[in-house]
Amino acid sequence: MDNELHVQGGQLDDETDDLDIDNILMAVIVMGLIFFDPRLNHVSRRRRIRDSALSGRDYVLEVLNGHPDRIIENMRLSVPLFLHLCDILVDRGYWHAYPSQRVGVHESVALTLMCLSHDERHRVLAERFQHSMETIDRHVRRVLRALVRLGRDFVRPRNVGETHPRILNNGLFYPWFKDCVGALDGTHISAWCRTEISEQYRNRHGGLSQNVLAACDHDMRFVYVRVGKYYMVDAAYTNMPGFMAPFRAARDTQHERAAKALFNRRHASVRNIIERSFGVLKKRFPILKGPMQNYLIATQNNIVLACCTLHNFMRDYAPNDEYFDEEAALGAQLDLQDGGNEIHEAQPIDMSQQGIQNWNENRRAIAVHMYVNRHGA
């Protein structure tokens, strides 16, 4: 009897309990019909923003199967090269597929190439590929990281023990530059940063840019790329073993000045390969020209390295690429000319090290031999 005082007003009848459940279910069904029936419910519901019938995956398939020029105009690669690039990234483990991921490697690479090749805003890519801006940003950064890893395979020296045909077959260069394997220089790439650190990236023109140091071989392939902070110097690099700089102005005899001027002209002709390489790089990837979007500095660095990787990938697998062909034709004409007559102003340099002294003597001997070969004894 005492226990009944603690259980009062309850309903212990199973039939009544089942009836209550049936009533609740009926009410839920009626409410559902009211909510989803447009004739009964006039409350506006939010529509999906990305509601195109052509998904990003379908767009990529359409481009791959469409006119050959479409993919070149949009992604700077032909269909076979695009597929080969995707296969390399997957086969070498630089791009991994996740089971829950709806965006495959082809779509991921395609939207990144369009970003680099046309400096497309992520909002535009989100509309084209029918994904959220967060998804676009995530995949752009993911593919950039994959291309930077691929750069370890493609951005490296090769055939350094051989005299390049560009030198070997040019009477203005051979035999004096027979051991030259390429050229080194820096360039400015558009940058974006927070206001509080903007002075670190301010260039002499007042804009924001980051310094990129790169070396290339005579095939216009980058063999070394350095992004980030470091001290930049002008054309008056110190002449030292492994790095041959042009002569600076000095008080010499007439013949010595003429020999050094001739050396500097031909030195400039050999060295312009790095300038042409930068030209192809920026022409193919306008994102480097700026103004740079508000990416993090780390992402901006990856953009530069990824573009250099793609540059070398194209050079290796598309030898008849129009950008390279145009620069190669121009370079062939310049290589036959003794262009440039600049001798840089003298700067105080410590020449006490024996290695530097020997290297300077080697350069002087080259200049004299070059002058005698042209003008006679």
UniProtKB/TrEMBL annotation:
Instruction: Give the keywords, sorted.
Output: Hydrolase, Metal-binding, Nuclease, Nucleus
Q: Where is the DDE Tnp4 domain?
A: 228-312
Instruction: Specify the DUF8040 domain's residue ranges.
Output: 52-148
* Highest rank taxon of the organism: Eukaryota
Gene Ontology CC: one annotated term = nucleus
Q: What cofactor does this one take?
A: a divalent metal cation
MF (Gene Ontology): hydrolase activity; metal ion binding; nuclease activity
Compartments (UniProt record): Nucleus
- Name the protein family: Belongs to the HARBI1 family.
**What PANTHER family has UniProt attached to this entry?**
OS08G0106900 PROTEIN, PTHR22930
What is the protein's given name?
Answer: Nuclease HARBI1
- Protein source organism: Coffea arabica
Gene name linked to the record:
LOC113700651
